[in-house]
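Troubleshooting log. The previous structure file for this entry was overwritten by mistake, so regenerating from the original sequence record. Sequence copied from the archived sheet and checked twice against the printout by T.R.
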Amino acid sequence: MPKKQTTIVWQDREVLFDLPFSYLRLRCGEKIFDRIEPIEDTKGNSGTKGRMVVTNLRIIWHSLSSPRINLSIGLNCIISTSTRTVNSGLRGTTQALHLLANYNNNKYEFIFTNLSPNCVRHYTSVVGVHKAYAGSRLYRDLKLRSAIIHNKQLKMLPLEKICIHEHGVWNLSSESGNLGSLRASNVRVVWCADLNDAFNISMPYLTIESISIRNSKFGEALVVVVHAWSGGYVLGFRTEPSRLRPLFAELQTLHQAYTDKPVFGVEMNWGNEAPKPTNDEIEDLVEIGEPRGEMGPQLYLASQLAQNKEEDVIQPVYSPYLGLAIEPLKEGFTLKSLFEVQT
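Regenerated output below.
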């Protein structure tokens, strides 16, 4: 189970099953691109109607009848996407979305069938978002000696804004150090050698664990520690003593600003297609809090609305348990079961 830390982004890098509801909430910076239903998890839960939610970090699927049955598939884990002819428990022989994923040296296969006839939106949405994710890795991945400099200018990312450009910054990775310049934007820190553009490093704030000042054999230095999952590097930089602490304070401020409001770089332009759902429209899934029984009250009401959206309006009935008028409960449900917390 991933650690519940706002500074650690696990959503795009893990494949997890049957998560507590709190782990299905959108983290800061995560946004919805599409919500599709009914979708069957044909390989793992054949015969079960579910909902697929596609975000800029992962694909979420959960059963409509029992939301504790769910999947979270990080976009970084997906190896390939394709279509495959399968035998669905609800549609028979049909075309389905086939995903191959890798996590913790294990391969996972997922097959999702859209139960709406002639609808391929689940395929186009997943493929489009995964392509956008793969094309925006500089927002999230540390890069060494990459082609990020052209004619002494940093190749800017679409959502990037330069905040600091500091000349005369030494990279202390060698015995004598290398002189270059350091740039910091709203999404990353970049250092590049003056004599060789190819000798550079691009560090998204997402990969940075800490920024501090430490003593080194070169004197006081700015030290950047990279998360273990991104290489675990410890990088030292030296500048004029009068600029060291102001530069340190500026970088810490930018790092904290990113942590508070991260930019993951995954953007989609849906053109003239149907508008995609907003966060408010899926609040029943991502803002439900801790688990309450097999199906919490908000998820219960959401599933009721989904099943009754084309039916006549249901008249409320009086509930002695609450002393209120409520919508009639489905067979097999009680108010007590909806509000009990399972341990």
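The CA atoms of residues 38 and 50 lie 5 Å apart. Archived copy saved in two places this time.
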